[in-house]
Amino acid sequence: MTSRNRLLLPAAFITSLGNNIQLLGAALLLVRAQGSMLDVGWLFIAVAVPQAVLSPYFGRLADRFDRRRLWVGCDLLSAGAALALPVGLALGVAQQPLVYATNFALAVIAAQFTPASAALIRERVPADRLRHFNAHYEIALQSGMLLSAAAGGVALQYFGPQPLFTFNACTFALSALLVTAVGARRGTVSSEPSYRPRPTNRRSSVGLGPLVVLFAQGLVVVTVFNALMPVLVVGEWHRGASVLGMTDALGGVGFLLAAAVYRWSGSRLGDVRLAVGGFLVCSCLLVLQPLFGVPALMAFVLLGAFLFGQSRIATRSLLMTSVDESRVGHVFGIANGYGLAATVVVMLLASVVTGRSDTRFGFAVLALIGVLSATLAAAWISTNSRRAASRQLEHAAVQQK
């Protein structure tokens, strides 16, 4: 991996920072305007639906066209869409429709960004370095989330939305500059209209189906959890945005610790066990988080993020290395689309349950779905592994004959 390719890490950090500032700030604006969990849920649904519909198609584009240019184009378009929110607020545009519209536009762009970024990483990073790079990539993503939660929440409370969202637009522009500096792939002509990587005919005995389920579970948990948290901390407990920011920051710290430990835990336990087991335990912890007040919430968020982060890194590594380089964009597009479609369903369910009761039951619904999906993935992996072992025995028997 060249030094220029390492620029993808700060670019991922900055993009994560911008995305989370946008979503956190928009959710807080809705809650402060006396919004309910359903209002916040609709915001996250407006972000999830276009990605769920468009990601599979955009994933094919990521395998056909230059992935670096797609990443840069997504960042530039995101900068323009993010800037529309503070400009609209300054001009007196109605807040709620503006929040939904700008986040919807950013979601359409993200539908292309997710498979393009995954495919670019698979293209530029050697296979034997992918697990190590994915751990650092997750550190970059979660560091962006940490800073956006801590600094974004405080900045929104003390400076207001316009400066915060203007800064957010600048983060996307800086990410575009970093990815541009990565340069074209060696051995290719940068002016070519498309990029077609060479197939390598790799196939995993685990199977893509359960890996897509696990990847989708990660998206569901993160998105619905982030929607429940502002309603719990600000709406029900009547704490300030700074408390929400500190809680989310501890979650970011948990992710950073997870990325640091992953190289040891992944080699000892294996990615499959780490992915399934971590998601199962993390789902159980979700039930406890809203029950005992702010200090206990912070402790459970830290522990849950530590387990969830390792599972997410392991799942990402498995999915990325289980397909040909020529199909990474398509597979990540499908996984992202399926995950966000599931997110819409779970978000609506959690929103309705929370609206008729409180966030304790919303967290319980999320936990139950997480346990069921992780159990399904574990059973599916076991079945695929037995079938693969059976095929190998049959192949060996044929060769002996």
Which residue ranges are poorly predicted, with pLDDT under 50 across at least 5 consecutive positions? Answer: 188-203
User: Which assembly state applies to the chains in this document?
Assistant: single chain
The SS-based structural class is mainly alpha
Shape: globular
Q: What's the number of helices?
A: 12
Q: Could you tell me the radius of gyration in angstroms?
A: 21 Å
Could you give a short account of the major beta sheet?
none
Average pLDDT for all residues:
77
How many beta-strand elements? 0
- Relative strand content: under 5%
Keywords:
401 residues; mainly alpha
Any overview of this molecule?
- This protein has 401 residues and is mainly α.
- It has 12 helices and no strands.
- The protein is globular, with a radius of gyration of 21 Å.
- The model is unreliable at 188-203 (pLDDT under 50).
